[in-house]
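Here is one chain, start to finish.
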Amino acid sequence: MDRGVAAETADQLLGILTAARAGEFATVDPTPAALIGREPVTAGAVLRERLSNG
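Its structure:
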């Protein structure tokens, strides 16, 4: 019985996780802010606000 994912897929996932840990996805594109006329908020910020307001 085979388990897990193919080696190539595992390598790709590991590459994505390694890049994320190195901060390679931390760049923020200014386009959304320009389109909506304000700085966007994170999903985490929205959830914290809604959960704290009951």
